[in-house]
Amino acid sequence: MNNTIVRSLSGAIFLIVMTGSLLWNPVVFAAVMLLSVVVMMWEYLTISLGKNFKTGKILSIITGVTIFVLFFLANAYTIADRYLYLAALPAALLFCSFIFEKDSKGEVMGEGYERAFFTITAIVYIALPFALTNTILFNNNNIYSPNLLLFLFILLWSSDVGAYVFGMSFGQKNGHKLYPEISPKKSWEGFWGGLGVTLLSALIIELTGFISIGIIHTLAIAIIVSVFGVLGDLAESLFKRNFAVKDSGSILPGHGGLLDRFDGALIAFPIAIVYLKIFCLI
Question: pTM to 2 decimals?
Answer without folding.
Answer: 0.91
